Structures are given as structure tokens and as C-alpha cells.
Amino acid sequence: MNEDEWSAVDDYIVDRLLVRDDALKAVLAANAAAGLPGIDVSPPQGKFLHLLARIAGARKILEIGTLGGYSTIWLARALPADGVVVTLEADRRHAAVARANFLRAGLAARIDLRVGPALETLPTLEAEGIGPFDFIFIDADKPNNPHYLAWAIRLGRPGSVIVGDNVVREGAVLDPDSTAPGVRGVRRFFDLLASEPRLSATAIQTVGAKGWDGFALAVLGEDGSHRFDRHRGDASPSDRRPGPLGGLLRR
Ligand code: SAH
Ligand code: DHB
Ligand code: MG
User: Fold this and answer.
1) Ligand 1 near 117 CB (within 6 A)
2) Mutation probe of ligand 2 site: the residue of 36, 39, 169, 183 with most atoms within 8 A of C-beta
């Protein structure tokens, strides 16, 4: 298996399951024309996020890391007419391209783009009382992922869905001694997902036109509500083995 085959299968998926989408093609063309890096989610991944947001019945979505707004548009399309995506972008140039893309796509009314470092904007969202958010997509600077996860919990509610992009990075996440700030941030993100009692989480590896990477997926609950998650991360292997009734009756 190689990246050409992963890409060819992505093309097949797009051909069979994604309708011809001139609006999103225009977004990618505008991003490229403006010199933005092509680090948006892929089309099948964008639709995956869109479907997750619909499954969650999301009316308020928070996105951290807009770039040209490709993923933002997929998410905005999952909303009812009175829904909103609040999307945070530090780079003014990226934000300007995204704003034009939202207007062209006819979605500007459903998208609230905030320019500035996300760690500065997030407290203002809390002060405005704009949440709670039903769905939160974390896709900005990876070293800050632990902080973004803490904010996602703070701005969410029981049942909120949290998705993190780029949690595998061609296996780089495996290296406990990595000095790369992004890798360290993602590993710390995993540690928090594992240890936070209000979260139930997994991660799914992906291959495709964007190489080998993955999404983390978590649902927020009340403290201690995730009874199927009692044995995580630091549990010994014997603790993890299910007992009678699949461990349902164990305390
Ligand atoms: N979600 C987009 C891709 C985002 S790429 C998509 O799939 O279409 C990551 C973005 O995060 C970049 O545009 C980068 O400028 C932005 N970013 C980096 N650091 C940031 C920060 N501290 N606060 C907000 N945005 C940041
Ligand atoms: C890259 C990809 C991403 O999806 C992202 O959010 C940031 C960086 C990359 O390939 O460098
Ligand atoms: Mg990403």
C-alpha cells in the first residue's frame, strides 16, 4: 500500500459518495490562489465532520483553526438555519481568504469568524456566554492542543462532541522522546483525553489524499459518567480484561 493508492481510493470515495461540489472547489481554488498551505481536511474527511455534526444534532459549533474555511463550510452546512459556527483564526491573511470564501458560499450569516490567537479569543467567548457548543473541532497549532481541550470542556455541555485533527502524523505520535512541540502537544492531548473523567474518547487513524494521520473523537459527560471507561491508560492489562457480563457488573 502506498500514498498513490490511498489517494486513488479517496478519489473513488469522492466520485461515488460526494456530490459534485463547485462551491467547495472554489474554496480550494481561492486558497491556492492566495498561497494558503493545502492543509485543509480532505473532501471525505470534510464530509465525515459534516456527518458527525449532523449526528450530534449540533446547533452551535466551535472550530479552532479556520485556514481558508474549507472545514468550516462543511460544518456550517450541517447546521439548521438558526445555527452558528464560531471559527477562530490567528492569521489575518488566512481569515481574509476565509471571509471571502464564506460570502461566496452564501454561508456568511451562519459563520462567526474571530481573528486572533485562539487562547485570547476563547475567554471572550466564555464572557459573551455564547456557548455551550454542541460540537468542537480542534485543528490549529498542535502545541496548544491540551489548552484547547480544556477550553472545549469548559465551553461544552454533557453530550458535546469534541474532534481533534492530526493526532497521528504518520506515526510521529508514538515517540515519547520527541522534541517536536506538535508531537508533544498531541501526546499531552492523549494523556488528558485518557485522564479526564468527563471525557470518553478514542482515535481513528486515516489514510488518503492527506497521507497517514488520524482524528481523536471524544464525548463530554458528567464527571464519572463514563462507566465503561473506568479502566483506561494506566490500567494494568488484567484490570482491562472484562469479567462476567463483559465487565458490566464490576466495580
Ligand atoms: N480547519 C482547517 C485547517 C486549519 S489549518 C481546514 O481543515 O480547512 C490550521 C490553522 O490554524 C491555520 O490557518 C493557522 O493559521 C491557525 N492557527 C495557528 N495557530 C493558531 C492560534 N494560536 N490561534 C488560532 N489559529 C491558529
Ligand atoms: C498540517 C496538516 C493539518 O491538517 C494541520 O491542521 C496542520 C498542519 C500539515 O500537514 O502540516
Ligand atoms: Mg488539520
Assistant:
1) yes
2) 39
Distance between Cα 73 and ligand 1 center (Å)? 15
**What cell numbers appear for 148 in the block?**
484547547
pLDDT tens digits for 119-169?
A: 999 999 999 999 999 999 999 999 999 999 999 999 999 999 999 999 999
Domains: count for the chain = 1
For residue 179, the enclosing domain spans: 3-247
Say how many C-beta atoms besides its own lie within 10 A of residue 79's C-beta.
22
pLDDT, the chain, mean:
91
Pocket of ligand 2, candidates 3, 166, 212: which has the most ligand atoms within 8 Å of its Cβ, to mutate?
166
Q: What is the per-residue pLDDT across 155-181, written as a single tens digit (0 to 9) for each?
A: 999 999 999 999 999 999 999 999 999
Q: Is the CB of 67 under 6 A from ligand 1?
A: yes
In short, whether 76's Cβ falls inside 6 Å of ligand 1 is no
CATH label of the domain that carries residue 40 = 3.40.50.150
